[in-house]
Amino acid sequence: MPAVTQPAPFETPIDTAMMRRVVKGISSVGSHPLGFRAAGTPEEHAVADLVAAEMRSIGLAEVHVEGVPVHMWRFRDATVSVEGTGSRIAGCSMAGVPATSKKGVSGPLVFVRDGRRDRLDRLDLAGVIALVDWRRAGPWISEIGLELGMRGVRAIVVCCLEGGSRFLGEGALGTSVGHWHAGAPPLVTVRQKDGWALIARCRKAPVRATVTLDVEFSRRAKGRNVCGVFAPELSGAPVVMGAHHDGWFFGAFDNASGVASMLTIAKGLTQSGWRPRRPVWFVSHTAEEYGRMDDDQPWCVGAWGDSPPGFAGLSTLCCTFNADRVDQPGGGCDLRNPQRRRGLGSPTPRRAASRHLRCDWGGDEVKD
Questions:
Q1: CA gap 93, 9 in Å, rounded
Q2: What is the 3-state secondary structure (H, E, C) of 292-358?
Q3: Does residue 88 sit in helix, strand or coil?
C-alpha cells in the first residue's frame, strides 16, 4: 500500500488583539446590568450573530446559523425587601426558576439553616419565605427547593456562608443551573454579607420580607449554533472544534474566552496555507449552561447540534475538541475578580510565552 502523506506541521502567530476584541464583544451583551446571555434569548442571538460575522471575516466557508429548540430563561432582575427598612437587596436566581408576580411574594422570613429535614420538621413553614444556607455536603438546591415547596414555603432566599463551596468570594452574587422542579417556589440568591444581615434580623425579631424575581420563560424558543468550515471541499469525517457562547453574568472566561480561542485557531488555519486531510468544522454552540426546564440533564443541549448537516448521517466524527474557560485562574461564577467581568486581564507569563499556534494534525488524531 502507498504511504499516506501527512500534513506538515506549521507554526503561525496568535492574534491576541482579536481574542481580546471577541471576549469584550461577547461579554458586553446581557439581559441585566450584570450580564446574562442565556440560550434562546435576544442576547444569545446577538452573540451568535457576532460570532457568525467573525467567522465570515476570517474566511471560513459555509458559515450558517442553526436553530436549536430550547427552553428560554431570560433573567431581568431579582430583589429581597425587608419590611420597614425601605431598602432592597440585589439578588440573582438560577436557570429554570419561575418568576414571581410584579408585586412579588411576601411573608414571614424564616431561617431554616441548611434545609435538612430534621431541622425542617421542627418548623411550621406554611406561607413563609425560607432563608437557606446552602452547604457543601447537602443536596442540590433543587431538592431542597422541592422539599420546602411541599411544606408550603412561598419563596426561597439562598445564601452560602462560611464552610460552603459556592459564591463565597468578596461581594460574589451566585447563579447556576437550577435543575428546578415544576411546582417548586421562586428562588433568589443573595450575597454572603446580605445573607448574614438577614439572618441577624431573623434572630433578633420576627421579619417580613418580599421576594421579587423578574424572568421571561418560554418552552418554544430557539437558541443558535453557528457553524463555519475550513477546507469544505475535502471529504471524510470532519474534525469539529467547538465552544459555547451562552453564559451567566458577563461570562468573559466562561465562555467568551473559549469562543475567542476557537476563532483565533480558525484564523490561524485559514491564513497559514496549511492543508488538512479532512474538513475542519468550527462550531459556537448555545445552551451549554442551560437548555431545558424540569430536567436532570439541562446543560449541553446545544452541543447535540454540533454535527454539520453534510455529516448528519455519520455515527462517528473524526474527533471533537471543546474550548471552555481558557486560561481561567479558578472556576465558578464569581464576580469578585474585576478581570472576570468584561475581558481578559494582563497576559500571564504562560500566556505571554505562548503566542504561536503549533499544529501537527496527522491522520485521525491531533498532537501537541
A1: 47
A2: CCCCCCCCCCHHHHCCCHHHCCCCCCCEEEECCCCCCCCCCCCCCCCHHHHCCCCCCHHHHCCCEEE
A3: strand
The Cα 149–Cα 101 span in angstroms is 17
- Residue listed under C-alpha cell 433543587: 142
Q: For 37, which DSSP code?
A: B
Compute the distance between CA of residue 217 and CA of residue 92 in angstroms, rounded to an integer.
16
Cα separation values, 264 from 4, 15, 60, 197, 353, Å:
29, 6, 12, 46, 16
Please give the pLDDT value at position 317: 72
> pTM value?
0.83
**3-state class of 192 per DSSP?**
helix
Report phi then psi at 320, rounded to 5. Answer: -130, 135
- CA pair distance 185, 181, nearest whole angstrom: 9
Least trusted range by pLDDT, from 194-198, 225-229, 319-323: 319-323
